[in-house]
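Example record for the data management plan.
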Amino acid sequence: MKKIGFLSFNHWSDHRGSRVRSAKESLLQSIELAQAAEDIGIDGAFFRVHHFADQQSTPFPLMSAIAATTSRIQVGTAVIDMRYENPLALAEDAAATDLISGGRLQLGLSRGSPQHADRGFEVFGNIPTTTDAAMASEKTDRFLAAISGAGVATANPQRYGPDAPLLAITPVSDTLATRIWWGAGSRATAETAAAKGLNLMSSTLMTEDTGVPFEQLQREQIDLFRASWARAGWAYRPSVSVSRDMLPIVDAETAALFGAHAGPGGSDQVGLIEGVAARFGRQHVDTPDRLAQALGADVAVDAADWVLLTIPNQLGVDLNIRILAALHDIGAELGWHEDALTTDRVGRVRAPRPGVRLAS
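Corresponding structural encoding:
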């Protein structure tokens, strides 16, 4: 069985063509879309986190709202830049959100990609003593210890006595540690993630290039991750997610919007990110049957437990529901899950659930 999630970058803008004009609309539409995705049978709602941009920068209010108004869909991030985070505050927020969700939080972390602000994490009070990567790794270690219930603060001797143990953060969610992911951009960082006991989240780019096709390089990353996990001897099975950029053409509106780019996905793109060669996966725009063929032949998708499909969130909830319905059907055709989508579940008139009021 394979799970399907949508990945939203949560953009908003007041430019012509955008159906998401403000931060408020971005938040409320994301809640409504997650609810509708649950009704369709999509397994996860994942959100990108960016600072100093017209995107969502703090995911926990959004994920908590989704968790409180749904019952099955997983809620997660892809990913949180650990350079910006206070690891203990993050641990408190994550545990509280996971408890609200009933254990449905899938929290993706990473060293972070290039941001809009030049070293914006320093404005947040985070000054690395060595490298950005080392700072992110150290913060992640503190976060993992905190969510596992380790003592992190000296107890007040006037309240607890002179020999009291260190105090742990509260609340604690007992199983959260098994649902923390690392956004690894290379084969080496995937192996490091496995050594730390983190699930693997691999996106549509690799921060290395060996000349082989993107899917093959990503499959090598997954295989090395699983081998490293086995060597580490962790007691539970890890999960692996891969992201794909796929737009199904399902009606006249999607044909008008995306049709000019339809057809074979072309070749990978190779470029530089912070001076390092990187290989980018292809965008696929086509009919559902051809997208199913592409996914079925993808060696990295074959090895993954989750497939996260990026959505054009600025085109609004209704269009994205149709896209997600088609992607759900593709998964059913490939045998990824048992439930079959029925047409009336997409075609019916939708109403916001209690507690959600969409901006006009």
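Summary line stored alongside the record: Residues 214-232 form the longest helix (19 residues).
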